[in-house]
Amino acid sequence: MKKNAKKKVIDSYRLIVDDVVTDIKIISDPDEFVPIYHMSFPVLKPATEAVLDYVREKLISEMDLRPAEILSPEEMRKTKEKFMKRSLEILKKELPGMKEEEYKTLVGILVHQSLGLGVIEILLQDRNLEEIVVNSSKESIWVYHIKIGWMKTNVRISSETQIYDYASSIGRKVGQQITNLDPLMDAYLTTGDRANATLFPISSNGNTLTIRKFARRPWTITDFIEHNTLSLDVAAFLWLAIQYELNIVIAGGTASGKTSLLNALTCFIPPNQRILSIEDTRELHLPNFLHWVPLTTRPPNPEGKGEVNMLHILINSLRMRPDRILVGEIRRQREAEVLFEAINTGHSVYSTLHSNTAEEAFRRLSNPPIDIPVALLGGLQLIAVMHRDRRKNIRRLLQLAELIPSSGLSEMRVDLNTLYQWIASEDKIIPVAKSYRAMGDIKLYTGMSERDIEKDLEEKKEVLQWMVKNNIKDINLVGKVVSHYYRDPKDVLENMRKGKFKI
Which pLDDT belongs to residue 98? Predict the structure, then answer.
């Protein structure tokens, strides 16, 4: 390490959350092995903190927080508004003579401490962060930045009790508990962010809290193309596959972008079809005009009753006349069997799976513990594999492969045909082989010729290019462009070419 090396500011910006102003500086410090996420926010005097404690106790005694107000996001919003209004009235009485912005700052701090997660509320509003991690009260909070990676902050939670209180608060809002008898919790915030908590001594250094942030603006197919995560050819091929109801499993490692890709592909589902999604934690976010029914699982209560698992919902969903079924993740054999039964009874199914390659995904599906019979597995047409290159901090579609069933002399078998492959050395997704199964199924069920399909793909690429060029990134707008195209493709393409198309 060089002597006299100085700290360097990599980035700086300001966050304003509930009128609490926080200046963020990302600092490269020669004495640290990772960048520092430095937060500067208002520092309260002891006398002011004492007044805030008094106001907090007064408000809690005044306000009747019924279960509905805790569990319902809408009621929670109303409660927050009432809390802020009443706290402002009390503060003006207890601390007269302050500026209006100072009152608002104190109200914001009070809301974060009383109804939220303290300083974590500010971190949750930073769109640059993907993960927020509390390892214990003995060390600083860690965050994962979308461009820089892991960073250590300059703040920490004051005590193990405070970490437990935050975890318990998150659990109560979604009907879960974390206790010494049940020291592990997997839940979600009302914003959709996923939360995991563990208690000492399971986590031997102290209580932990891990929050994976839900994208406030979900990635769309336009983002994937613009960031070279997908090539234009692959995006058009997947659009074709979704439109004509081919079944797709999206595989990949942790945080590789599986769910983000699944979410982006839902914009290609025609608006006249009924969509059911089944998840453990709400992560999917479809265009608001689609006929979509989101369903989520529920863990058992402390007495072990009331559980609604994915299998329960999956079986029930088949009685709800779905055209398309989205399943958050394939994990267990019985769920997978029902899912593949749905495929073989004419439903279009899309799901995710933890696997690093198409071959590994196929092995996971066809061997224990999932162990889907090959006869059922043949109903799946495509496996798309997402990859996260940690060295370059980029996400790419690693492979797109199709499953080709064939009947041998003794038993049925399924072969993989890789259609597209990412070449890491060139950072390019290239075509590898011609499609037989997917194109054959489209021809069989639509009557389209190979020339018709090629023309369709070229039109889809033209629409996708138009959306990239015109910066159409909102999920609802992408969905509307696709829906207009379904309604009258010739008119949409003509207007796009003339520069007259408007959403």
Answer: 85
Taken in order 458, 427, 218, 41, is the CA torsion positive or negative? negative
Give the Cβ contact number of residue 426 at 10 Å.
8
CATH architecture classification, 8-212: 2-Layer Sandwich (3.30)
Task: Report the distance separating Cα 432 and Cα 234, nearest Å.
Answer: 12
Strands 20-28 and 8-17, by their bridges, are antiparallel
Report which of 282, 287, 280 is spatially closest to residue 265, judged by C-alpha positions: 287
Stretch 323-339: mean pLDDT = 88
**Which of 240, 403, 268 is closest to 324 using CA atoms?**
268
Q: Of the segments 78-92, 231-245, 345-359, which one has the largest average pLDDT value? A: 231-245
Q: Give 94-110 pLDDT, tens digit per residue.
A: 888 888 988 899 999 98
The CATH class of the 221-448 domain is: alpha beta
Structure tokens at 294: 């989101």
**pLDDT tens per residue across span 275-300:** 999 988 778 889 999 999 999 888 77
pLDDT on residue 158 = 92
E strands present in 288-393? 291-296, 324-327, 348-354, 382-389
How far apart CA 297 and CA 251 sit, in angstroms, is: 22
CA distance 464 to 237: 11
Strand 382-389's sheet: what is its strand order?
291-296, 274-279, 324-327, 348-354, 248-252, 382-389, 394-407, 412-423, 428-431
As a whole number of angstroms, the distance between CA 126 and CA 110 comes to: 20
Domain boundaries, the chain: 8-212, 221-448
The closest alpha carbon to 439, from 457, 421, 422, 415, belongs to 457
Backbone angles phi, psi at 247, to 5 degrees: -90, 135
Helix ranges (DSSP H) in 97-229: 100-114, 120-124, 160-173, 221-226
State the Cα–Cα distance between residues 262 and 245, nearest whole angstrom. 14
Q: Tell me the three state secondary structure of residue 321.
A: coil
Question: CB of 26 within 8 A of CB of 36?
Answer: yes
User: Before 201, cis peptide (omega within 30)?
Assistant: yes
DSSP-based three-state secondary structure for 112: helix
Task: Give 261-265 contacts, CB < 8 A, sequence gap 24+.
Answer: 261/224, 261/230, 261/384, 261/386, 261/397, 262/326, 262/350, 262/351, 262/352, 263/218, 263/219, 263/475, 264/218, 264/219, 264/220, 264/221, 264/223, 264/224, 265/221, 265/238, 265/239, 265/350
- The pLDDT of residue 43 is 83
Answering whether pTM is above 0.70, one says: yes
Q: What is the pLDDT of residue 264?
A: 95
For 278, the token pair is 């089944």
Integer Cα distance of 298 and 324 in angstroms? 22
Q: How confident is the model at residue 1 (pLDDT cuts 50, 70, 90)?
A: very low
Residue 392's CB is within 10 A of a number of other CB atoms, namely: 10
User: Where do the DSSP E strands lie in 29-117?
Assistant: 36-40
